[in-house]
Amino acid sequence: MLRNRLASFMRWFAYNGDADGICSMVQWGLAYGLEGKRVTGVKRDIQLLDKISLERDDELVAMDISLERNHGKAKQFAESNHKIIWFDHHLSGEEIKGIESYIDTSAEMCTSKIVENYIGVKSAWAHVALHGDGLGQYSDRPDLAELGELLNYNGYGESLDDLHYHPDKLLQYCIDSVTPEEFIKTKVFEKLKLGFANDMANVGDIKQKDGMYVLPDLSWARRIVGVFAHRLNESPGPHVIAIDKGDKFQISVRGSSGIGELCKMFGGGGRETAGGIDALPKGEVPALMKEIVARRDN
Predict the structure, then answer these.
(1) Which of 54, 99, 244, 264 could cross-link with 58 by S-S, CB 3.0 to 4.6 Å?
(2) CB 65 within 8 A of CB 90
């Protein structure tokens, strides 16, 4: 358990800029406050500890970012006796002594549900996150599906310039709204809804070719790739969605199980039902597709 703020120290927050990361932080903020420094970024910007320098008594709260992908820096902080609490549902890698971790990689879990369990207060924001992560089948709040999808949509992009809202600003809007129902009434929600509709109008011509759905390296495609992938996962997979980066592909994979481990084989990572590979050389595509086809056959 982290300390209260009677002592003189800085608390840092590192969180994913997608729906799950934001909804996890909303729950924490409503329960405990968010005094301190926050670090976030686009969906795939998960090595956030590289952007943090902890002073002597500083503490760290990490939400929805892979401990495995931040292992070196996290171990360094832990060995320097910094208090660290970590909430996540992605691959964690080798255990690090001294980190208070709440990591559950079960297919039905998202980080927001883990945070909800930790706080001990049922939250509609956890249902928003389930929908955002393509896990709506585990939620009994279908009325929050659109919000979850839109918050997740905002997190995708090559850089912050691709996004409609900086994730930290979106977090503040959610905190100010207190409940998802109130956020849905805001102009921020309307802007996300309009942007999403405009971007999705471009996907009609995208068909599967050689086992993959290939999208152009354009801002609209970079924004909708996550939602497009989640929607494909409503049918049997695994599904591969690629953004063409010239001599490489940026890969997203969705399926029923083992997806994070599959992506890890090719330098990526993820969780049980979703994963990604940031830069897969095109020469390695046949090897990836061989693994994908084997899982489809099974």
Answers:
(1) 54
(2) yes
